[in-house]
Amino acid sequence: MAIIDPRLLPLIETLIAADADWLAFEILDGIQLGRVVEETREDLQSTRLAVRTAKHQRRRSEERPVPPPAATPLVGDEQIDWAANYVADRLSDAVSMLGATLDQLNQIASSTEEPQATISDRTSRREVDLVLREEGEGPVLHRTQVDEANAAIPKLREALSNWANSTRIGGHSA
Predict the structure, then answer these.
(1) Fewest CB atoms within 10 Å of the CB: 19, 64, 78, 110?
(2) What secondary structure letter does DSSP report for 135?
(3) H helix intervals, 34-142
């Protein structure tokens, strides 16, 4: 288990202050887990081929169990770089998923209208917004907000990169 580099505290505190404590927990879990060995391209390709052709040489229950290789810990500057990249990638993925969800909901909503309307008529008439609720009322998420968030991702990546660079240069690792 890796020891969390104290230079990550400002990033963790910023995420918590921004109500993204879920992301702060994911970062801490990821760093403690370390760099996990992934399947090789060849292994993945042979599995894809076996699935496509519906072939299997042996049942998994017949194979001798082999424990996965041990993860390598992230230490020092690796933690800083990993966390910065993880935050940018995770938020980028979340915004992309929100955009895809809105697109799909718009498609569903427009397909329920009268069939003689053209696609441009349908999309110009109705656009779906998401209302996020836990208890009672919640914020409304408009497509323009998702587009603005998507446009801000490159700025976020740059800011995180600058933070990581200044932290590596000016900070002291544990």
Answers:
(1) 64
(2) S
(3) 41-52, 77-111, 119-125
Residue whose tokens read 């104290």: 6
- Which residue type does 122 have? R
d(CA 122, CA 113): 7
Question: pTM here?
Answer: 0.74
Q: Are 8 and 80 in contact (CB under 8 A)?
A: yes
Helix and strand numbers (H, E) in the chain are 6, 2
Nearest to 125 by CA among 141, 106, 152: 106
> Using the 8-state DSSP alphabet, how is residue 19 labeled?
T
Distance CA 132, CA 94 (A): 15
Find tokens 């995770």 and name the residue: 90
**5, 164 in Cβ contact below 8 A?**
no
Give the pLDDT confidence of 88-144 residue by residue, as tens digits: 999 999 999 999 998 888 888 877 755 555 555 544 556 777 777 677 677 788 889
Question: Torsion angle of alpha carbons 53, 54, 60, 61, nearest 10°?
Answer: -150
d(CA 116, CA 126): 15
Q: How far apart are CA 112 and CA 59, in angstroms?
A: 46
Burial class (CB in 10 A: 0-12, 13-18, 19+), 173: middle
Residue for token digits 């998702």? 146
